[in-house]
Amino acid sequence: MPCTAAEAAHRAASDREIIAWVDEQDRLQGGLPRAELRTRGLIGRGTFVVLFDGQGRLCAQQRTLSKAVYPGYWDAAAGGMVQVDESYALSAERELAEELGVTGVPLQDHGRFLFDAPGNRLWCGVFSAVWDGPLTLQAEEISQVCFVHPDELRRRALDEPWCPDSLEALRRYFPQFAAL
């Protein structure tokens, strides 16, 4: 299924965003357009917000087909690239509001790690939050959401494509997902 015109326009605008470009030690080198970071194989900063409901279920999002990285994959975290003038925390708050419509919720900071795969080199800031309110999906980036228990995620991760960077965030910082 091809992406919609709105998704394609959103992707083009996203590719022009100026993203924090960093080195292997997460030292800021400047800012570059998102597409240029990917094309040149440089490292950017990204955020992952692992959202749980009050029952301990994880909010999983299926990415739209217009996404440049892992189109159509399931994602275990909301989030995105850190703009050059943002902190990890500010980016996490912005992305959570944009993608899922969640605002005013405290974010717990879990730390940073380097994810280095072909076409996806990121220093990742990992956060979590608990939310039982309504979600408002950003249609250009998320096609659907569901809440899953850790056991269900482990089963689904065997049969469906999941973003490897967000699964790595789960494995590193959330003991209930260590067996992924």
List the helices and strands and how they pair.
Layout: H1 5-16, E1 18-22, E2 28-33, H2 34-40, E3 43-52, E4 58-63, E5 74-75, E6 78-81, H3 88-100, E7 108-117, E8 120-130, E9 142-148, H4 150-159, H5 164-173
Parallel strand pairs: 3-8
Antiparallel strand pairs: 1-2, 1-3, 3-6, 4-5, 4-9, 7-8
Please sum up the structure shown.
By secondary structure, this protein is an alpha+beta fold.
Q: Overall mean pLDDT score?
A: 93
User: Could you estimate the helical fraction of the residues in percent?
Assistant: 25-40%
Q: What series of H and E elements makes up the topology? A: HEEHEEEEHEEEHH
Distance between the termini: 29 Å
Number of strands: 9
**Overall outline:** globular
Biggest β-sheet description: 6 strands, mixed
Using only C-alpha atoms, the radius of gyration works out to 15 Å
Structural class computed from helices and strand pairing: alpha+beta
Give start-end ranges of low-pLDDT stretches: none
* Beta-strand proportion: 25-35%
User: Number of helical runs?
Assistant: 5
Keywords: Hydrolase, Magnesium, Metal-binding
Organism: Pseudomonas quercus
Family: Belongs to the Nudix hydrolase family.
Pfam families: NUDIX (PF00293)
